[in-house]
Amino acid sequence: MVTDPQLYRVLWENERVRVLEYRDVPGDATHLHSHPDSVMVTLSSFQRVISAGGREAQVDLEAGQVRWLDAQEHQGRNVGETATHSVFIELKEPRPGTPRQDAALGPSAS
Amino acid sequence: MVTDPQLYRVLWENERVRVLEYRDVPGDATHLHSHPDSVMVTLSSFQRVISAGGREAQVDLEAGQVRWLDAQEHQGRNVGETATHSVFIELKEPRPGTPRQDAALGPSAS
Fold this sequence. Notes:
Two copies of one chain form a homodimer.
Chain A: E1 8-13, E2 17-24, E3 33-35, E4 38-42, E5 46-52, E6 55-61, E7 66-69, E8 72-78, E9 84-91
Antiparallel strand pairs in A: 1-2, 2-9, 3-8, 4-7, 4-9, 5-6, 5-8
């Protein structure tokens, strides 16, 4: 919301979660930004490259998929031929215990 | 998962969330069951009646909507002409502070 307000929109929030909608078109890229621990649900298929600190991850998803996103900083680029439409459910409470040591870059299966 | 394992499926879970997929067809109904605080994302349009303790709520949603579900017990019935397809992101951590006093029956806007 801070770095790319034209791509992200807050759908609603309450005490426990904030829900963001993300939409872009091929070629669009985000600035470096941070996510808290989140769940992403894809509402379109898309192909993206996620990058941070010299690492890159290719993300190729169909619509209707649900993925976990470890708290992280990254930037993303739509490298496909379709618009991206997805929602993020951000968890507002701090992660109990210690931070995840094996945080994955980009979305992961759980 | 306990009362209606033919309608719900666990997609994945980790320390913080459990993700369920729900699918049914017109006329299907669930038994009385409980949800923890959850976020629901609709992947189809559907028309349902949610009921609990003599109260009823009509739920009529399009695909791609995101709704909050207060922790609650209820049962649901597909009263429309289309299959239901949705996902639930269940929050595993207990709600901080006191339980919500104005818990809504069925999904709410936030």
